[in-house]
Write a structure and sequence with these properties.
Helices cover about 40% and strands about 15% of the residues. It is α/β, with parallel strands linked by helices. The protein folds into 2 domains: about 190 residues, 3-Layer(aba) Sandwich (Rossmann fold), CATH 3.40.50; about 90 residues, Helicase, Ruva Protein, domain 3. The strands form 3 sheets. Strands 2-3-6-1-7 form a 5-stranded parallel β-sheet, sandwiched between helices. Helix 10 packs parallel to helix 12 and helix 11 packs across helix 12. It is globular, with a radius of gyration of 23 Å. About 0% of the residues have low confidence.
Length: about 325
C-alpha cells in the first residue's frame, strides 16, 4: 500500500534516492491516513499488525466498538494514547500507527444499535489527531497533562466491514448508470461483484461518517476475503502466528508437534466456515489442541501427531 510507504518515508525509515540535493519535508507528501475495509474474514487487523511487526513500527489497536467519548467511564481516546506512550516511549509513539478497529460502528448507520457511547461525537474527537500537530495526553487519575504528543508523523488506519454501505453504493450506481452498467438487472441480486471496491467518499458520508473526517482520509483500500491457501500460508510462514505460538508452548514443555499437510488445509477450511478468517484460526487451533495442552505439562518428552483422523475426532 502506497500510504504505508509514505509513512515509512515520514518516519525516516526510507531515505530519498534523489541525489540532486533536493530536501524533502514530511509536509511535502500526502497524509497517509487510510480507510481499510473488507469483510470480517478479510484479515484487516492481521495485515496492519504484520506490517508493523516487520518494520518495527509502534502499533496500537483501538477497539471502536467499546470506545467511549471523553467524560464517560470506560476506555476513551486518551486511554489508548497514554498506553501507546507507556508501551513505546514518547519518541517512538510519535511515529506510530493507530488502528481504529470496527470504525464503522461509529457511523450514524450503526450508532442506533448496541455499541459505543458517542458516535459522531467520537468521530469529532478523532479529528483532533488529524488537525492538531500536538495534543495533550492526560494522566489516568487526574486531568493533569502527563505528556504532549506530536501527531504530525502518526498514521491513522480506520478499519471496518462497513456492512450496509453496499446498499448506498448500489443505489448510486443504479441511479446514475442503470442496473445493467454494473452487471445485473433491477430484479436481480448482484452476485460476484464486490461493491465495496466501487466506494467513493460521498458513500461514506451518506453512511454516517462526518465530512470533515472523510475529507482527511487520503486513501481507501478494500480487502478480499482470505482464501484457504492464504490461511495455510499464514500458519506455515507468518512469523509468530497463532499456530506457531501453540507449537512453542509444546516445545517449552519438551514435546514435539507434527502436523500433516492435509491438516493445515482442514484447519483453514474450518476457519472459513466460521466466517471470521484469520481470527477463526485461533478458535479452531484451540479446539484442536485443547486436551493436549494439559497433557504436555509433565516431565516426559512426547511426540504428538496431528493427522486427519485426530482432526476429525476433535473438530465436529
Amino acid at each position: 500500500m502506497i500510504c504505508f510507504y509514505i509513512h515509512l518515508i515520514q518516519i525516516g525509515y526510507i531515505e530519498s534516492s534523489n541525489t540532486k540535493g533536493f530536501v524533502f519535508s514530511t509536509n511535502d507528501f500526502p497524509k497517509p491516513n487510510l480507510l481499510l475495509s473488507g469483510t470480517i474474514s478479510s484479515g484487516k487487523s492481521f495485515l496492519i499488525n504484520t506490517l508493523c511487526d516487520f518494520f518495527k513500527i509502534p502499533f496500537i489497536r483501538i477497539d471502536c466498538f467499546s470506545l467511549v467519548s471523553s467524560g464517560y467511564i470506560g476506555n476513551n481516546l486518551n486511554t489508548y494514547l497514554k498506553t501507546l506512550i507507556d508501551r513505546y516511549g514518547k519518541e517512538k509513539a510519535e511515529k506510530a500507527i493507530l488502528f481504529f478497529d470496527e470504525f464503522d460502528k461509529m457511523s450514524e448507520y450503526n450508532i442506533g444499535r448496541k455499541g459505543s457511547i458517542g458516535g459522531v461525537e467520537l468521530q469529532q474527537e478523532f479529528l483532533v489527531l488529524l488537525e492538531e500537530k500536538k495534543i495533550n495526553v492526560l494522566s489516568e487519575r487526574s486531568s493533569d497533562v502527563s505528556s504532549v504528543l506530536n501527531t504530525e508523523n502518526i498514521m491513522l488506519v480506520f478499519g471496518g466491514s462497513f456492512a450496509g454501505v453496499e446498499r448506498i453504493i448500489e443505489k448510486r450506481l443504479s441511479t446514475k448508470h442503470g442496473y445493467g452498467s454494473i452487471g445485473f438487472t433491477k430484479k436481480e441480486q448482484p452476485q460476484g461483484i464486490n461493491l465495496l471496491k466501487k466506494i467513493i467518499p460521498d458513500d461514506l458520508i451518506k453512511f454516517g461518517i462526518i465530512p470533515e473526517l472523510v475529507g482527511r482520509i487520503g486513501f481507501i483500500a478494500i480487502l478480499d476475503t482470505l482464501k484457504k491457501d492464504e490461511l495455510v500460508q499464514i500458519m506455515k510462514t507468518s512469523k509468530n502466528n497463532i499456530l506457531e505460538q501453540y507449537i512453542n508452548y509444546f516445545k517449552f514443555n519438551n514435546d514435539t508437534i507434527q502436523i500433516t499437510d492435509d491438516v493445515y488445509e482442514l484447519i483453514a477450511e474450518e476457519a472459513i466456515k466460521r466466517k471470521t478468517g484469520a481470527r477463526a484460526l485461533q478458535g479452531v487451533i484451540m479446539q484442536l489442541f485443547g486436551d493436549l495442552l494439559f497433557e504436555t505439562v509433565n516431565e516426559k518428552s512426547e511426540k504428538y501427531i496431528i493427522d486427519t483422523d485426530y482432526f476429525y475426532k476433535k473438530i465436529n
